[in-house]
Amino acid sequence: MKILCISDLHGRFPSRLYSFAKEEKPDLILVAGDITESDTFRKLQFENWDILHKKKNTIEDLVGGKKYKTILKSSAESAEKMLSKLNNLKAPVILIEGNAEHCAESLAPYGLQKLGFENIAIRFENILILDRSFIEVDGIAIITHGGYRGVKSKAKKDSKTSLKYTAHKKQYIKELESLFKNMKDRKMTIFMTHDVPFNTKMDLVDMESSPMHKKHVGDDIYRAFIEKYQPAVNICGHMHENQGQEMLKNTIVANCGYGHDSECCILKIKDKKTTVRFYKL
């Protein structure tokens, strides 16, 4: 099985990446989240980092309700274009949420629930949102766990942030224990997450414009489960600058790269041997 792995399109599906995907004719496409445009939110967050994190203001507080709704609507609408292009590749697509997607529940207070990520995806026959789930495809087990908890290194210094970061810890552990109990053969198992495991080269911020520059920002729970169960590969994204792989025990941690800039990887599992090849198109 040839599996194309993409993450972090952020509202842009480059023609080079799209052409490559069509030419490669993958049997399956795994998308590790953040297909939705979020650059506007990201820019506002970085420009107002101290205000947002010290004074505990929100972006909506900064720009006002009317402008915030306009930005939110534009971001949510971008998912449809990305899903349409993925659907047109004619291969089955398994997709998880990142931290940029907008679900119907979060959009409801603004009257935008029809633009909810799940409501858009259901219209496309080749798209399957399979978040926090277990599935077997041609003998290969795929464990999916999307979403985003927050930054561990920042949580240590801020009790409120720490509370937010740990709020879903028990939930994450319970979900992952339940999912990994289905695993029969670690050498035939893919673990797909949006976030990357903590304290690796995958989660070290190398972007100088980021307030978290040179800090480790990954998820410690993901690391713990990778080390415990050692699936063949952990497909992840989120950290745009860290395309590549490294080993955690017997698991290949493979960051697909920044799909927005035509990065991706192709995963093959054959005869219980796993290979990952990375592309910067």
Structure, described:
This protein has 281 residues and is α/β, with parallel strands linked by helices. The protein has one domain (2-280): Purple Acid Phosphatase, chain A, domain 2, CATH 3.60.21. It contains eleven helices and twelve strands. The chain has helices spanning 15-24, 39-47, 49-54, 59-63, 65-87, 104-107, 117-121, 152-155, 159-166, 169-180, 220-229, and strands spanning 2-6, 28-31, 93-95, 127-129, 133-137, 140-145, 189-193, 233-236, 244-248, 251-255, 263-270, 273-280. The radius of gyration is 18 Å and the shape is globular. The two termini are 22 Å apart. The model has no long low-confidence stretch (mean pLDDT 91).
Task: Provide key terms for this protein.
12 strands; alpha/beta; six-stranded mixed sheet; 11 helices; 281 residues; 22% strand; Purple Acid Phosphatase, chain A, domain 2; globular
How are the SSEs placed, and which strands pair?
Elements (H helix, E strand, L loop, with lengths): L1 E5 L8 H10 L3 E4 L7 H9 L1 H6 L4 H5 L1 H23 L5 E3 L8 H4 L9 H5 L5 E3 L3 E5 L2 E6 L6 H4 L3 H8 L2 H12 L8 E5 L26 H10 L3 E4 L7 E5 L2 E5 L7 E8 L2 E8 L1
Parallel strand pairs: 1-2, 2-3, 3-4, 6-7, 7-8, 8-10
Antiparallel strand pairs: 1-11, 5-6, 9-10, 11-12
